[in-house]
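yo, Transporter is done. seq:
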Amino acid sequence: MTFIVVVLVAFSIVLDVIGQLCFKIGLDRLPELEGGFRLNAFWLQVFNAPMLWAGVGAYVIEFFVWLQALSRAPLSLLFPAAALAYCGVVFAGKVLLGEYVSRRRWMGTLVITLGVMLVCFAAA
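structure:
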């Protein structure tokens, strides 16, 4: 992988993590609906939630970054590397959102990371 591809994939991963964090924070900030769940009221809240729109914005930017990366390297190399976003989301959930992450989930995250390293180094 060239340096520019590494930077593009890393930026894509960061944007993916930011998007997921924005979605989670945005949904957690929505007020409780009175009288039970009403789909129309929920969607009205969703469309008026700035953090959810920030998540959508992160995903739109990520889309174009990902296209740039795909134009420069094979999908079979990039897609496994993009799996590091899962690791980033687990880490960000723990550190920024205070979520509990079990030992088993940390082990799974480590396995993903090692798998990505294996794919990337095998391609070099």
